[in-house]
Structure formats: structure tokens, C-alpha cells
Design a protein that fits this description.
This protein is α/β, with parallel strands linked by helices. The protein contains nine helices and eight strands. Strands 1-4-3-5-2-6-7-8 form an eight-stranded mixed sheet, sandwiched between helices. Helix 4 (112-124) crosses helix 9 (254-272). The longest helix has 19 residues, at 254-272.
């Protein structure tokens, strides 16, 4: 299995040599200076674009957070590199034309968020900006007090400094917390939602039902995730447990990734009604 790379947003000066890889890789340094540790041409070859160009146009901003099923851990590897039209990612103080793997997420494969952004761009004729804070295999507690929390706070701060505010937040997370006492997971997610609100994010938050590990869904976690969907300004995402196209029983293969993106678009369209009003 490919080793996981933590990719976070930062105001730190980017390293000029994207291929330098020291023998010791402390986690904090990987978070703050990710370009030192990434040797994928799909990452190091991203095309920078002026953030002001995007801000001055009609845009729609996605903030996506969670663990591996939203991080770059799914789909085919290697894949055909594509750069969707009018889809961008904002990372640190800079903006880029979006392509997989997305900045701000661990691993070096693909995320459904890129496909979802392309669908939204087509439906709305808006530019879509992606912001990611996702680390595979990370319990929710890490987003409250650990390294994932630092990633999340830094990402939210940098996004505001760059002049973007999310129109929606996706929280796709859960498998790392299977087996906990009833109510604990929902309480911790409520704390994560509080972090978003404390940092000025008023956008609706969408939480899917997503619990499958080794081909089996966890009913207790499904119930907790569905209870979270009733929190204030929190809405249900799709039931990802229904997707059976998985390369290891947990993570989605290419067909599963495409189904996941389509399911997310359908769920979000029920809230935003992109197909029932004329594009502006």
C-alpha cells in the first residue's frame, strides 16, 4: 500500500526544490513543507494561477475534510491526468488549476472532490475552488486536538487570507472511530463543527453515511452519522455504504469513485437546486 503523505496548507515559504527528501521526515515538517516530500509529477507539476483572477469572477467554494474516502486514496493508480475547466484549488497563499492528487489531502491517488467540482462547474457555469483538509486513517479526535486540527485551522486561516469563504463544507469521516461507545463519535463531530463555526464558516455542512471497512458497514456508526445530519445547518450527504466498487473492500476503485462523485452531486443538488434555476 502506498505510504501516506500529509499535505497541509501553510504560509511558510515553499521549498524551491520539490524533489529534495531528507532522510529524517518529522511529521511537523511534512505538514508545514509538503513540497519537500512529494515526488509525484502530478503534484509538483501543478499550474499556478492568480487567486485574484478567480476572486473577481463568479465562484463557488468547497471545503472538504475527513479521512481516506475523501483524501487522495481512491480510484485508479496511475490515472490519466486531466485538468477540468474552471476548477481550481487554493493551497497556502496560492491558487492552482486543479488536478489529482489534490493539495491539502494525504495520499497520492484521487479524490471524488475533483470530479464533484467539475460537475458543479458545469451545472452552475461558475468557477469552483477546492480547499482540502483530509488525512487518511485519522480518528476524529485528531481534528480536535492533534496534527489534523493544526492542518484544519491552518487551512481555514489561509483560505480567509486568500479571500475565499466556503459555500459548502463536506465532512466525510468515520471508519477510524468504529467501535467507540455510543454517542462519543457524534459528540466529537459536533466539536469539529464548532471549529468551523468559530473560524467564521457559516456554510452548510454535509455529512454522508460512510462506514464500510473490509466490505462490511457498521450499523452503530451509521446511526451516529445519521444523527449528526440533524444538527443545526448540517445536512445529509449520500449513503456511500451502497457503493460496492472497492479495490480492497474499503477504498473505492475508479468506478466507485465516479459513482461517489455522482451521488454527492445529486445529494447537493437537492439542497442548492442547481438544475431548477437558470445559471447566473
Amino acid at each position: 500500500m502506498l505510504r501516506k503523505l500529509v499535505v497541509a496548507l501553510t504560509f511558510a515559504v515553499f521549498c524551491t526544490n520539490a524533489h529534495a527528501k531528507p532522510s529524517i521526515q518529522p511529521l511537523e515538517d511534512v505538514v508545514m513543507h509538503p513540497q519537500r516530500y512529494i515526488d509525484s509529477v502530478n503534484i509538483s507539476g501543478k499550474e499556478q494561477i492568480d487567486c485574484n483572477y478567480i476572486k473577481n469572477r463568479n465562484n463557488f467554494v468547497i471545503f472538504a475534510s475527513g479521512q481516506s474516502l475523501i483524501a487522495n486514496t481512491n480510484g485508479n493508480f496511475p490515472w490519466e491526468r486531466t485538468i477540468p475547466r474552471n476548477v481550481y484549488e487554493q493551497w497556502g497563499a496560492l491558487c492552482y488549476k486543479a488536478n489529482a492528487p489534490l493539495y491539502g489531502a494525504s495520499d497520492t491517488m484521487q479524490s471524488f472532490v475533483l470530479l464533484l467540482a467539475e460537475y458543479i462547474a458545469r451545472a452552475t457555469t461558475k468557477d469552483v475552488v477546492i480547499n482540502m483538509a483530509a488525512i487518511g486513517g485519522t480518528p476524529v479526535g485528531e481534528f480536535i486536538h492533534g496534527t489534523a486540527n493544526s492542518l484544519l485551522i491552518t487551512q481555514l486561516h489561509n483560505m480567509k487570507q486568500a479571500g475565499f469563504l466556503p459555500d459548502l463544507v463536506i465532512w466525510e469521516h468515520g471508519q477510524a472511530d468504529i467501535g467507540r461507545q455510543s454517542g462519543q463519535y457524534a459528540a466529537d463531530v459536533k466539536a469539529v463543527i464548532g471549529i468551523f463555526r468559530q473560524n467564521g464558516v457559516t456554510a452548510p455542512i454535509f455529512v454522508p453515511t460512510d462506514t464500510t471497512v473490509n466490505w462490511s458497514a457498521d450499523e452503530a456508526l451509521r446511526q451516529e452519522q445519521q444523527s449528526i445530519q440533524g444538527f443545526e445547518n448540517v445536512f445529509p450527504g449520500p449513503d456511500i455504504d451502497l457503493v460496492r466498487y472497492r479495490y480492497d473492500g474499503t477504498h473505492l476503485d475508479q468506478k466507485g469513485l465516479e459513482i461517489q462523485a455522482a451521488m454527492w452531486f445529486q445529494a447537493l443538488d437537492q439542497h442548492f437546486h442547481w438544475h431548477s434555476r437558470p445559471a447566473k
